[in-house]
Amino acid sequence: MSRGLPDSDRPGPPYVPRIDTIREHQVFLVERYQPGATLADVRASVARLDALRSQHGTVRHVSSTLVPREEAVFALFVADSVDAVIRLNRAAGLQVDRVVTGVYLTAGAHVEGVP
């Protein structure tokens, strides 16, 4: 027997959790246009960012996404300022083509690097 979804009369699978908490965090999305970038390149970038983490205070690299077809890498950071994000990336030897500010929403789950 399956239970219904919260706030719905329709039945749903028994594994659908109720979302009681939505967390919001200011984030910065760094765009890098890197023709020919590989997964190995992105792994190396993530390793460099991680190695510099302790030297750059509250800046936290949350994730990086390689989009080969667009020749782009998108890296997500939590930080106090865009300047702090740019400084960390430059210290890691990484280009920063564009930085946008956003709001990261998580539903009842903790994501490493996000308060």
Labels describing this entry:
Alpha-Beta Plaits, 4-stranded antiparallel beta sheet, disordered N terminus, 2 helices, 115 residues, alpha+beta
Task: Sum this structure up briefly.
Helix content is 20%, strand content 32%.
Description:
- Pfam families: SCO4226-like (PF14026).
- The protein is 20% helix and 32% strand.
- The protein has 115 residues and is α+β, with helices and mostly antiparallel strands.
- The protein has a 4-stranded antiparallel β-sheet with strand order 2-3-1-4, covered by helices on one side.
- The longest helix is centred in the middle third of the chain and has 13 residues, at 39-51.
CATH architecture name: 2-Layer Sandwich
End-to-end Cα distance? 37 Å
Helix percentage range: 10-25%
Low-confidence stretches: 1-8, 10-19
Instruction: Give the strand content.
Output: 25-35%
Number of strands: 4
Q: What structural class should be given to the helix and strand makeup?
A: alpha+beta
* Major pleated sheet: 4 strands, antiparallel
Strand order of the largest sheet: 2-3-1-4
Rg for CA atoms:
18 Å
Could you please say which CATH topology applies here? Alpha-Beta Plaits
**CATH uppermost class:** Alpha Beta
Number of domains: 1
* Mean model confidence by pLDDT: 80
Shape: globular
Number of helices, where a helix is a run of at least 4 consecutive DSSP H or I residues: 2
Could you spell the SSE succession in H and E letters?
Answer: EHEEHE
Protein name: DUF4242 domain-containing protein
Organism: Nocardioides immobilis
Pfam families: SCO4226-like
